[in-house]
Structures are given as structure tokens and as C-alpha cells.
Write a structure and sequence with these properties.
Elements: E1 3-7, H1 12-28, E2 33-39, H2 44-50, E3 54-58, H3 70-92, E4 96-99, H4 105-114, E5 119-123, H5 130-135, E6 141-144, E7 158-160, H6 167-171, H7 176-183, E8 190-195, H8 202-209, H9 212-217, E9 221-226, H10 232-239, E10 247-250, H11 256-262, E11 265-268, H12 272-281, E12 284-287, H13 297-306, E13 312-313, H14 316-331, H15 334-345, H16 352-366
Parallel strand pairs: 1-2, 1-4, 2-3, 4-5, 5-6, 6-7, 8-9, 8-11, 9-10, 11-12, 12-13
Length: about 375
Amino acid sequence: MKKIIISGGGTGGHIFPALAIANAIKLLDKDIDILFVGADGKMEMERVPKAGYKIIGLPVRGLQRKLSFKNLKVLYNLCISLRKAKKIVKDFKPDAVVCVGGYASGPIGRVASKYGIPLLLQEQNSYAGITNKLLAKRASKICVAYDNMERFFEKSKIIFTGNPVRKDLLAAKNLKTEAIDFYGLQADKKTILVTGGSLGAGTLNNSIRGALGELERHSDIQILWQCGSYYYNALNTELKDRLPRNIKMLAFLERMDLAYALADIVVARAGAGTISELCLLGKASILVPSPNVAEDHQTKNAMALVDKDAAIMLKDLEAETKLVKTMLALIGNPASCSNLKYNIFKLGIADSDMIIAKELLLLIKAK
């Protein structure tokens, strides 16, 4: 039986592609044994078992960007993680290792390559993450979702695959009636989906909260607003008696597939996973990159679309004064919406997970 380790995580942007790749591998060969390696205490330790896969956690953490004594503990945990990764590789004996980015990818990728095990990297962003950059020289293949990635990786190793996304999103494209009923919205109104992810985004929330009166006056539109679990209680207490009827605020969108099915335009951050979903579904989008990410990579993700006239971008600092005006202008301009939809849809790759899975099996066969 062939054995594969998939390592990485920390955010949904890493976990969803990892699970999609695992599922694609299983479709190609049911007899392959897959083991996940993640970081202790991170969301993959809960999400991966729910998806039906085994996972082992490492105590690895990221370095603090400022000088801090906490970095001594980080280095200590890295040493422990490298030892644990070595034991995992020796015990499991994988035929190949996939690293999708995130803290856990570093130790397991380093150990696997040291033992001559084929290593495949999956880089979701337009600006390569530090872990993948460190592992690149050891990798056999590097799967990317953006052009010009030879800035970071050896050109001969790069395969353009796009980013794997959740298949349920595609299945729900034609379920608008069900989506209307599920979220209690109206079929005759245009819908703007505003989402800062499961935890939320303060800038997006402040932008909507500061323009409730203006949004209420536009009775021909409705807002489905995922404010995030981190912000929901405070916002609900503040707004429960003055939230306009055309705005539905939720902590979390239980059915993201149905939320996308409803949306005429989408307002979101610019994480790699979100952008891949928007491309695949062909959604007219306004992107507000988070300023709190490494190397400002969300701005680079967004600009890769803006340069192809496939999305609108607003800087985080200007969102509170410009976002709602931009939303209203876009949804009121069908020609602009159609142009954005057409251009972003051209960038989507529906079978990224299967392309990556096939490349991985070819690596094993070559070995």
C-alpha cells in the first residue's frame, strides 16, 4: 500500500486545499494510506479528523516578528518538532510528502527530503510563504496558482495548477431558491455578500456599521453580512434594534455554498482560498486585503486580479470611507459586474485538486 503524508495548516486557506488534495488522491487510488501532520492547537487538529483522516500534531510555532524572549521557546519547540517529524517519517514510511504551507510543513518537509522522499509543495499565494521558500530547493515539484512564481522557485519545478477549493461550492451554483429560503432573504432584491471569514474582519464590519442609514435607503438591495464570531456579540448588542430590514447579520455562514449562490457581488478579504473560490464561481468582487499578514501577500493576491480587470481592490485604510460607495456603484452597474464576472471566471481552474493528486502519484511512480 502506498503511503502519503500531507502537512500544513493553521488557517482554512491551508486546510481546505490539503483536504481537497487528499480526497482527490483517494478518488484516484482508494488503497493509499494518508496521514496528516499539523500544528498542535491549530484548527487542522479538529477539521482533519472530522473529514475522516488521521492527524498528528507538532508543537511548532512561528517566530515573533519583533525581538522577543518568546522566540527562545519557538526555537525549542522547533527542535522538538524536528525530532517528532523524524519519528513520524521513520514509523509511517511515506512514499511522498505534500506540504501546503503553515508551520508544520517545515519540519516534516525538511525531514522527508533528508531521507530522499519525494516532496511536493503547494503554494496558494502570489507571494510565496516563508516555509515553502525554505523547502523549495528540496522539493521535486511546486504547484502554484499565480503567474510569475519563478521569482521564488526554480522554473523547472513549477506546475501551474490553481488552488483546490471545496466541491460543495460548485454543486450549489443553481440553488438560489434554496439559498433564499435558507437565509430568509428576498428573491426580488440584488444581494451583496460581505464576509471577513469565520472570525470576521473589523474593517469590513466598521464599514457596514457606519453606513446603515445609506444602505437602508437602497431598498432594492439586501446585504448578507458575516461579521464573524469574534465581533458578533458586541455588534448584535449594539445594532439589534436598529439593523435595517434589508441587512441580515450573522456570526457565521453555515452554508457558504448557498451564500455564494445568492451573491450578485462579493466583498471579502483577499486570502488565496477566497480568491480561488471567487474565480471558480465567477463572482464580481471587491477585495479589501488584510494588512495583518506576512509580506502583505493579500494585496499581491488581489493585484493579480486587478491587473487583469477581474476584481476591484480597496486598501484597508480607505475602506471605511469608500467601501459602501464602491459596493453601491458596482451593483448599480450591470455592465461592470458582467465584465468582472467574465474576467475572473477565466482565471478559475475547476480540477486543481485532481491535477495535484496526479502529479503526486507520478512522483511516486518515478521514484
